[in-house]
Design goal:
This protein is of the alpha/beta class and 284 residues long. The protein has 2 domains: 12-196, Rossmann fold (3-Layer(aba) Sandwich), CATH 3.40.50.10540; 215-279, formyl-coa transferase, domain 3, CATH 3.30.1540.10. Helix content is 43%, strand content 15%. The protein has helices spanning 21-31, 46-50, 52-59, 72-82, 94-99, 104-110, 133-140, 153-177, 186-193, 195-198, 232-242, 251-258, 263-273; strands at 12-15, 35-40, 63-66, 87-90, 115-120, 181-185, 215-219, 224-228, 277-279. The longest helix has 25 residues, at 153-177.
Length: 284
């Protein structure tokens, strides 16, 4: 893997963000060259208990301190770290953030050159409402009960949005616009992910929701494949190499054809033919 450019080698990031979105964004900033100082509560980051290996990966290369920010000593230690910092990332609920004097107005008055990205669950006026990845997805119609999601969509989208907001704030400051603030509601990130569904593109009868035979999932003799021959030239290539006519390119015919070989063979065949087909990965 090609190493990332160290474009942030003069930037210092202080983060109090726990769990997934903040640590994931901070890890990306570190890979770009930033120095990252992570402040954890006395009991540590819950992610370390939940998944030690992932916590270790996301924390690698960071300077970690465990502080009680509700104590005078802990708060003073944090203030010292913020003196020469460029960016603060937080993920407490806004009311809790204000309680420890880390809200934007208070921090900005003390550290006018410090940019701040605040990760929160919901956008104002619901910024103090309790939530987690599962509830954000539930509110947006992205769950199919009783199946739980295969990944943390809200958290990972939140990490990317945190990263983009952080880079934008640092860029704006570099251009002379001063230090700035950005809120990143995780629920808003999920709303962005629902746009294809809201516009009907990925609805069950939508153009990318199953209505097109050339953009679908098919069972094979062993495993499943994802077929994404959406553009005409891909679809024409598929039909040509399968040896069928355009009128035979139906859901039923594709089901019969793809059942004749295992998924791995179809993927290899498609690669030779320049057709977008891959075997569906099965996690154990």
């Amino acid at each position: 893997m090609k190493s990332e450019q160290k474009i942030l080698d003069s930037i210092k990031v202080v983060t109090t963000a726990m769990n997934v979105p903040g640590p994931s964004a901070a890890s990306a900033l570190l890979r770009m060259g930033a120095k990252v100082v992570k402040i954890e509560p006395p009991g540590g980051d819950f992610l370390e208990m939940l998944c030690p290996s992932w916590y270790k990966e996301l924390s690698a290369g960071q300077e970690i301190h465990r502080l009680d920010l509700k104590s005078a000593q802990g708060h003073a230690a944090l203030e010292e770290m913020l003196k020469d910092a460029d960016l603060l990332i937080t993920s407490m609920r806004p009311s809790a953030l204000k309680h420890v004097s880390l809200d934007w107005n208070t921090v900005h008055s003390r550290h006018p050159r410090l940019c701040h990205v605040e990760i929160m669950g919901y956008a104002p006026p619901d910024e103090d409402r309790a939530g987690h990845d599962l509830t954000y997805l539930a509110s947006s119609g992205l769950l199919t009960p009783p199946v739980l999601p295969r990944t943390l969509l809200a958290d990972m989208m939140g990490a990317e949005r945190t990263l983009s907001r952080a880079l934008a704030l640092l860029y704006a400051r570099d251009k002379g616009h001063g230090a700035g603030y950005a809120g990143v509601p995780l629920s808003r990130g999920v709303e962005i992910l629902t746009e294809p569904l809201r516009y009907g593109v990925t609805a069950p009868d939508g153009i990318l929701g199953g209505s097109l035979p050339q953009y679908n999932l098919y069972e094979t003799s062993k495993g499943w494949i994802a077929l994404a021959a959406l553009e005409k030239h891909f679809c024409d290539t598929l039909i040509h190499h399968l040896g069928i006519n355009n009128e035979d390119a139906t859901h039923d015919n594709f089901r019969k054809i793809f059942l004749t070989r295992p998924a791995a063979e179809w993927e290899a065949w498609a690669k030779e033919c320049d057709i977008p087909i891959v075997a569906v990965q099965e996690w154990t």
